[in-house]
Structure formats: structure tokens, C-alpha cells
Records
---
Amino acid sequence: MRSAFPAPSSLAAPVTLAAFAAIGLLAGLAGGCAEARLPDPKLAAQRYAEAARTGDSERIYALLSSEAQRDYGPQGTRRLVEQAKAELSRQGTALLSPASRVQASAEIRFEDGESALFDLEDGTFHLSSLGTVPSRPRSPAEALGDFRRALARRSYPALLGVLSAETRQAMEGDLKSLVEGLENPETLDVKVSGDNAVVEVPGGHQVKLRREAGVWRVQDFD
């Protein structure tokens, strides 16, 4: 379960356990083959839950990353906790429920904008998303990131992987119908007008072509 803490511009900006895990992972990577020794994320979640339930701003401040501590400061943290005390109390109670599940993760961003995601399982980080590896987006922003990577790589399989089941089935159905309609292209009625051509394809499809430097290319299809 991911925890949330109000930000200066919004009282619902997320502060996740991934920050704790990322620090440990990067420290391990910097040490070469040395394994990262991480604090138990369940313990961190429990401490946060207890602090949130009681509205203890000092304990919540102590759990923030150094960057978040610089951004909020002790007084800012105290003020935000007061403003969201009821919500934090509900959240802390939910986190302490036996049904809650803690998931720690880390993200490494590369210079080209790509990123690799790792999930902590049984004390070891495992790759959950990297380029062509199918991911499991946990938020709309992560799904959009997968969509962007699929488009950037011009990868049809990756594109299908980020679509909903309904959209994927519809797209695959349309493409299958188009493939079947183009099975015998020499028999189709091609209407040519100068450097442009239009073909009505069985199945309700239409293909538009354009001649560029003497070579015919598909301009559009539906």
C-alpha cells in the first residue's frame, strides 16, 4: 500500500515507500557487486501508519526523505498534518489493517527518458519494467509512460501491450479484416488520379496511396 502526504500545492500529493527502497538500491549499485541492505519496508509503513493515525507531525517529518524535509520543514509539516489530520487518521488506520499490503519499489531513470522499475520481493529487487519487458502500470501516468515508449520505439507489440483488452481486440479485428481484404490486391478496383490513388477494400476499408519520387506508398487507411 502506498502512503500519501499533503504537498504545499496540494493536500494529496503522494509520498511513497519507493523513496526508501530507491535509496537502498542506488547505494547497492554504487558499491558494485555489494548487495543493498534495506530497512524493512513493513516497519517503515507501520511507523508511518502509527504517526498518521495519531497526527504526530514530528514522527512523520522524521520519516520523510531529506529532500522532502527541506521542502516542508518541521513547521510546514506540522501545519500540513493539522490540515489533513482526519484524512491521515483514516489512512493510518487502514495501513495498520491486517489486510494491507506493503510494496516497495525503485525507479532508475536514464538520460534518454527511459526508466527501469524494480519491485522488492523477499528482500531482493526484481525487474518489473524495462523497455520491451511488459509492465504493470500502477497509475495513469505510468500507463502513459509505457504508451510513449511504445510509440518512440515504433513497436507494434509494445503498443498492443499498453491498450485495454477492448481496444486491443478491436484493433486486431480491424487489421485482420484489412489483411483478408487485401489478400488479392490485383483484383481490387484502384482509382488513380495523378499521383494519388484510392482503393475500396472488402470489409468496409479504404486505402489511400500517394506516389513519391516514382514509388507508390500508403498514405492513409481505415
---
Amino acid sequence: MATGAKGGIGWALPLLGLILAGMVWELVARIVVRSPLLFAPFSTTLVALWDLFRSGAIFPHIAVSGQEFLAGFVISAVAGVAIGAAFAAVPRLGRLGSAVVQAAYATPLVAVAPLLIVLFGIGVRSKIIIVILLAIFPVLISTESAFRSINPEYVETGIAFGAGRLQLLRKVVLPAASIGILTGLRLAVGRGIIGVLVGEIFGATKGLGFLIVQYSESFQTAKTLAVVLVLAVIGVVASEGLQQLEDRLSPWKESGRAHRAPDAD
């Protein structure tokens, strides 16, 4: 009973947070700013969002931005995990690349987005490259840290039970590192969405970033914020999906909550 109640509260609290954020948005727009040209109320933004979906005008742009994000994110995930694992497995290689990775991660790569668009054109390819450059480093760093932090006793126990290299990797190493890897992937979601947005703002003929530029230049603030809202929802859904996967890969969290529930009662 206690576990079910906590699960219900767990779903209700984020929803309540979103409702409160919408209320604050509405109050700020109507009481503080008072200019729909500068900041549209939340209710007006929802109406504009409904109009965009009802007319179907937004769907081609969602498709383009989704393609850019998914391609860049998948490449970032695969390459980031592979390079991070290699850095953890070969310490000298990790030390060799650590300064470059940290410098690239700290550098505002958004500043080179116009150059990348000039080099690779205003099509999908340049946006995918920007997404990769922004999203790969959280995955790489988190993966390397996750593999390095694996308790050696887990591996020694697996060897003692006769596990081979492939079994150790599949049954011990990857499960132990999965939470850290998924944390990096969740961080990469936000950076990947920023990459899509930045690339399309600097040069594109389709996409949600292109729509934001188009609507903001014509002072259609409600539609501009509606597109921003779509991007926010995409980020929340992707992050929540990875969170659910993390919970499934770490069932001990749920068992820990279940054991603590009777104590709380």
C-alpha cells in the first residue's frame, strides 16, 4: 500500500510542478510584462500550439528536427560509450585524450556553429554534426567514470565463478556501468536539442529552430513560445524515457524503497 501511494505521489508531483510553472508563466505575462508582443500568456501559447497542430503546419518541421536530433544523438551515444569505455580500459589512452575532451566540453561549441553550416551547408548534415559535437562529451565522460568506478570485487567474483570475458562484460561490467552511462545519455538529450535549435537558427529552411526565427521576426510571440514548448516536451519525454530505462536496469532501487516503506510506517 505504501509503495503504491508513493508511486502515485511520484507521478503527481511532476505534474503539479508543471501546473505551477504554467500558473507562474500566466501571472508573469499578465501582471509583470503586460505585453503579448514581448511575452505571451501560457493560455494564449496553448491556443497557438493547438492551432499549429490543427493546421498541420508544425509537423514537417518536427519531422526534420526529429531526424537531426535522433541521428546525432544515436551517433553520440554509440561513439561516446565506445570511446569512454576505451579510455577506462586503457588508462594511458584516457590520460592522452583527457585534456582534449575537457577542453572541447568546456568550449562553447555553439560559437563554431556558423562555420559548420558554411562548411557542410544548411541541410540536415550540418545539424547532425552540431548535435554530435554537443552531445557526445557528456556520454563519453560519464561512461569513462562509470567504468572506472566499478568495484573490482564484482569482476573478481565473476572470475571466481568461472565467467569468461564476454560473460564478465555482459553480466557484470555493463550492468554495473549502465546507470552512469544512462546519466550521460540524459545529459546529452538537452545538449542535443540545443544543438538542433542552434543549427536551425543559424541556417535552415525547415525545422523547429527555423520556425522560432520566422515567428519571432514577425512578432508572433505566442507561436514562438508554442514551438519552444514543443522542444521542452520532447526533452522531457526523452529524459523520462531514459529515466524509466534506468529504473528497470536498477531494480535494487525499487527494492530499497520497498524495504524502507514499512520502517516509515
